[in-house]
Amino acid sequence: MYKKDIYTIQSNEPLTPAVYRMVLEGDTQYVTRSGQFINIELEGKFLRRPISVSDYDATTITIIYKVVGRGTEQMRAMRAGQKLDILTGLGNGFSTDNDAKRPLLVGGGVGVPPLYNLAKRLLSEGKRPTVVLGFNTKEEVFYAEEFKALGVDVFVATADGSMGIKGFVTDAIREAAIEFDYLYTCGPLPMLKALYDNTSVDGEYSFEERMGCGFGACMGCSCKTKYGNKRICKDGPVLKREEIIW
Amino acid sequence: MVKHYDTSVELCGVKLTNPVIPASGTFGFGREFAEYYDLDCLGAISFKGTTRDARFGNPTPRIAECTSGLINSVGLQNPGIDKVIAEELPHLREIFHNPIVANISGFSLEEYEECCAKIDKEEQVEIIEVNVSCPNVHNGGMSFGTQPESAAEVTRRVKAVTKKPVFIKLSPNVTDIVAIARACEEAGADGICLINTLLGMRIDTVRRKPVIANKMGGFSGDAIFPVAVRMVYQVANACKIPVMGCGGVSSASDVIEMMMAGATAVQVGAANLKNPYAAKEIIEALPKEMERLGIERLSDIIGIVK
């Protein structure tokens, strides 16, 4: 189920020069799983902006977005108290209904946010998640401390080596010799593919695609899987490793 | 005393409680919208363009945003006519009890014939809408819709295999819409539906590449409303058969404007994708708009502008 409602901005603050965190207040009952997304209506824009949910509780939804175009530029300028028309509860999200005891969470850039609530969820279920976060450079790193504050092991990889392990997330996994029995990941397509090729455990991969409606009607974001055609917005964005066709 | 505002219309003998119909391709088979609201408020539903065989459609990205609209290049993704009849129609019947408009697309005369003959047997389908205007498939339906002779030929072949009212859905990407509409009318069409999307294109100036994988796609949304009103007006004035107006409708006021231009029923397309409640909200706003404009019976204003 999902809901269209009006939400009030509680805060909107930068985490890095380009990445912002916005906390929205309103009805959160339809956000039921980590890895779901919301679709925000912006004044003067025909299509809504789909942004993944980083965290949620009984009254708030937290999103973390990168300013990449005119829509997110508009969002950056928004202030507390402003109201937004939003569809919530979209997408399937990550499943924690598996036997994994030591899941690995790998996020790349703005793929990091949805893993935050997932880490909390896994911890609450008594599992021991490890987190690997990949960025291009030190200036782009965000949320490493927030993950650490949850009490999980966090490894940061930067492509230029300016922070943490030099290289990609796959280098970090190898160098830190992380042991894991399940993989959750969200990030750019080349990173997802590299993880798929360099690991063998089961897992869930969150994909990104340009969307029209965001709730499964327009077929704008279809992809082929081993289980048939799926819509990234409605049947995804999370696909199981076994069904992915690259 | 509260006045009663009569929103009912009749399309080729099919009675609709109101003229608002979600347009094909923006409403799937109703499933996603039934999660938001009771679909029975809708006058009818035009379901996703269906072809003989299942189609995945075009590569992604398929969507490009524009000022007051979007370009799509979905490419007629659908499960194929047999699966639509076996799985989608029975489910649609559970969640929707008003008339169903079957949107049929094809790549050959035989395909149109075959699909229409199959859908003719489905009781719950009350109107067939033959799409000869999809801009997103290579050598697809559009080639039939851009010439009077070929549009007429599709009409004749389809009419021969069904007793249901047949509406031909036309493309705006032509030089003389009236000639094509008239050719369909002469070939036996029971009505005309227009307009489908306008062929458009966007370029990502950073990557120096088209935004859409298929390069071009169909432009829809508020921006195309004036083009739709113009074409509805031209066709309604040139033909005797009823017109379903479509293109950029996003308010009750737009519905009335399009009816004044000559539309008997009005389809709502891209607006559904921006706001899943769009069609319902438009219907709810109709009585107030009728009151404002001094209209008691919506059917009185069809084609009132000469």
Could you name the key traits of this structure?
heterodimer, A: 246 residues, alpha/beta, Elongation Factor Tu (Ef-tu), domain 3, Rossmann fold, 2 domains, six-stranded antiparallel barrel, 5 helices, globular, B: 306 residues, eight-stranded parallel β-sheet, 10 helices, 16 strands, 33% helix, 21% strand
Quick recap:
The complex is a heterodimer of chains A (about 250) and B (about 300). Chain A is an alpha/beta fold.
Could you explain how this protein is built, in words?
The complex is a heterodimer of chains A (246) and B (306). Chain A has 246 residues and is of the alpha/beta class. Chain A is 17% helix and 35% strand. Chain A folds into two domains: 3-90, Elongation Factor Tu (Ef-tu), domain 3, CATH 2.40.30; 103-206, 3-Layer(aba) Sandwich (Rossmann fold), CATH 3.40.50.80. In chain A, a hairpin with a 4-residue loop joins β1 and β2. Chain A is globular. Chain A starts with a strand and ends in a 6-residue tail after the last strand. Chain B is α/β, with parallel strands linked by helices. Chain B has helices spanning 31-34, 81-95, 109-120, 142-145, 148-159, 177-186, 225-238, 252-261, 271-274, 278-293; strands at 9-11, 14-16, 20-22, 45-46, 63-66, 69-72, 100-105, 125-131, 166-169, 191-194, 198-201, 203-204, 209-210, 216-220, 243-246, 263-268. Chain B has an eight-stranded parallel β-sheet with strand order 3-16-15-10-9-8-7-4. Chain B has a four-stranded antiparallel β-sheet with strand order 5-6-14-11, with no helix packed on it. In chain B, α3 (109-120) packs parallel to α5, α6 (177-186) packs across α7 (225-238) and α7 (225-238) packs parallel to α8. The chains are: A alpha/beta (246), B alpha/beta (306). The interface between A and B is medium-sized, with 26 and 35 residues.
